[in-house]
Specification:
Keywords: Magnesium, Metal-binding, Molybdenum, Molybdenum cofactor biosynthesis, Transferase
Pfam families: MoCF_biosynth (PF00994), MoeA_C (PF03454), MoeA_N (PF03453)
Strand order of the largest sheet: 7-4-6-5-9-8
Strand content: 25-35%
Function: Catalyzes the insertion of molybdate into adenylated molybdopterin with the concomitant release of AMP.
EC number: 2.10.1.1
Number of strands: 28
Number of helices: 7
Largest sheet: 6 strands, mixed
Number of domains: 4
CATH topology of the largest domain: Molybdenum Cofactor Biosythetic Enzyme, Chain A
Catalytic activity: adenylyl-molybdopterin + molybdate = Mo-molybdopterin + AMP + H(+)
Structural class: alpha/beta
Radius of gyration: 31 Å
Length: 419
């Protein structure tokens, strides 16, 4: 698609081209910090973690049953052994087994050193202290060996892994109490525009409530981010420039909404050219074409559109990957699936379109999607009803009922940056 507002109608950047420019421009942060394991969920690992112990630490039983030495088994015949004690989880058997003896044992309990096999309790017959083992008794079964799961000194997790619940469980199981992670990103955001009103003030003609800051606050609610709301900046060029320069000195990333278009009161691109650098401005995405990316001092800058649906879409498709890269996380792509579209969708060729949809799955496992309503970039109600984007490529000129489309579920997008 050509940019009709540009003097020589330069082609707009595609989303992959914009993301590649961002990838080349952004250098991940290097600073790290130590956090307690119970505060580490979702943080990005900065240094590899090695196991301080073997796991399991002792040979232990995988079943409730009886531990015995395989040398007591006489070929394929049934046999009896004398039970001389019990090994409990946390309270190992303290005696020494002789030939012809066994011990009662419970799941997770330490095996006596003289034993190498465990039979399930359901397979034996008990007569006082005499235990009858059946002829099909298997040896070397139901035993968890030392280091079977993790060997001491082995690398458990390597950076830049984002720590998950299973990771936390694994680290706790080997006694790791603290981890070294990337420090949290410092992000400042504010809205621009004379028309904006805080939520605690009544509306007057020509004014609208500022929903964008609440959108950004929610999208930035991540353990890897410290987000600062800098409020509403009116359409005052000098005040906006002063605010941007001040924020750039204290934050890793500055995000604004509004002021990135081509109106007389839209100053973002002009200010960025004056006090920083513009990497790109405008991309072939709908909603959200007027999007600026650049740098002010050491801080990266994103100027998002003013329409609320455009803010959501451009943040998720452009800003979120940049945040993940800056935070040091490995690159990842959002989950996309194929679904049958049961709505007629209108679209003009030229920009990749992210239309709001409602995704369902039928009893046979087939994915179905319908439009959630009017698709204007100011229509938040259809976004609230939606649970996915219907992703239409730039060359698409519409979708008929029954056609296959690509769908991006909100479950991996909305509410979190996923960094």
């Amino acid at each position: 698609m050509l940019d009709a507002c540009a003097p020589k109608s330069k082609p707009l950047l595609t989303i992959p081209e914009a993301l590649e420019k961002i990838r080349l421009a952004i250098q991940p942060i290097q600073q790290s910090e130590t956090v307690a394991l119970n505060k580490a969920l979702g943080r990005i690992l900065a240094e590899p973690i090695y196991s301080p112990i073997n796991m399991p630490f002792d040979r232990n039983s995988a079943m409730d049953g009886y531990a015995f030495a395989s040398t007591n088994k006489p070929g394929q015949s049934a046999f009896t052994l004398e039970c001389v004690g019990t090994s409990w989880a946390g309270r190992p058997f303290q005696g020494q087994l002789q030939k012809g003896q066994c011990v009662r044992i419970f799941t997770g309990a330490v095996l006596p050193p003289e034993t190498d096999s465990v039979i399930m309790q359901e397979k034996v017959q008990v007569d006082g202290n005499t235990i009858l083992f059946p002829e099909d008794t298997k040896i070397h079964q139901n035993v968890r060996e030392v280091g079977e799961d993790v060997e001491q000194g082995r690398c458990l997790i390597s950076p830049p892994k984002k720590l998950t619940v299973p990771d936390i469980s694994l680290l706790a199981s080997v006694g790791v109490a603290e981890v070294i992670v990337k420090r949290a990103l410092k992000v400042a955001f504010f809205s621009t525009g004379d028309e904006l009103v805080p939520l605690d003030q009544p509306l007057t003609s020509g004014k609208i409530y500022d929903s964008n800051r609440y959108t950004l606050q929610s999208l930035l609610a991540d353990v890897n981010i410290t987000a600062t709301d800098m409020g509403i900046i009116p359409d005052d060029k000098q005040l906006l420039e002063d605010s941007l320069v001040a924020a750039s000195k204290a934050y890793d990333i500055v995000i604004t909404t509004g002021g990135a278009s081509v109106g007389e009161a839209d100053y973002v691109k002009e200010i960025l050219e004056h006090c920083g650098e513009v990497n790109f401005w405008k991309i072939a995405i709908k909603p959200g074409k007027p999007l600026a990316f650049g740098k002010i001092g050491a801080s990266y800058f994103f100027g998002l559109p003013g329409n609320p649906v455009s803010v959501m879409a451009t943040f998720q498709q452009i800003v979120a990957p940049a945040l993940r890269q800056l935070a040091g996380e490995s690159p990842s792509k959002a989950l996309r699936i194929t679904a049958t579209c049961n709505s007629l969708l209108k679209k003009a060729a030229g920009r990749q379109d992210f239309q709001r949809g409602i995704l369902t799955q039928d009893d046979d496992g087939n994915f179905l999607v319908v439009s959630s309503g009017v698709q204007g970039s100011n229509i938040l109600s259809s976004l609230s009803r939606a649970n996915c984007y219907i992703v239409l490529p730039s060359e698409c000129t519409g979708v008929n009922v029954g056609e296959k489309v690509i769908v991006e579920p909100f479950s991996l997008l909305l509410g979190k940056v996923r960094i």
